[in-house]
What we know:
The protein is an alpha/beta fold.
Amino acid sequence: RFKAVIFDLDGVITDTAHYHYLAWKELAESQGVHFDHEFNERLKGIDRMGSLDLILASAAHQRQYTPEEKLALADTKNKHYQELISTMSSKDLLPGAVEALDTVRRAGLRIGLASVSKNAFTVLERLGITDKFDYVVDAATIARGKPDPEIFLKAARELGVAPADCLGVEDAVAGVTAIKAAGMFALGIGHPFVLTEADVVITSLKEFNLAAY
Ligand code: G16
Ligand code: MG
């Protein structure tokens, strides 16, 4: 019944969340901010500057940062992150990811990628799956990150499919909200207690069953 499937990248196709965690932790601690896995959960699907704002807002010292200082901090985090992902390869694909992409392809549906990561193209290259997508949104062209529906609506438009005919796949709360706000069917990857807005929640793409949604 769907005409296209639009995938998130981090946490759905590959686990870059761990690399984001390591890079943000070092950056946060350099600013005297305590950073743990629970904090990292809140940053999933949130763009780079938005994530930095959340980290700095939780600092005990509450000092003001200039826009230049913030850009420099974001850049430091990104350089570290890029170093960490430079060794990624197809072994970093999450279980079931390639099978899910191939199932959608065989069913004749269009395939899109909606990641707010400006490193998404690099990650796809490293994973060796760039050619499996009909359209990959360039995060640099997106004005409002998730939970705003902009990125999913752009993917649908470029794929030439109405939002109501799209299935969106997300692991983050902000991402599921974005899919629903776009008027799409939301498949959550994770836990139903967390992804309460999703239409269906599965544990990983290993359980992906296109005919069931
Ligand atoms: C991903 C991650 C976020 C990260 C964002 C921006 O979003 O989940 O934690 O902050 O990308 O990444 P970058 O700093 O590489 O531009 P998504 O939409 O892929 O889940
Ligand atoms: Mg994600």
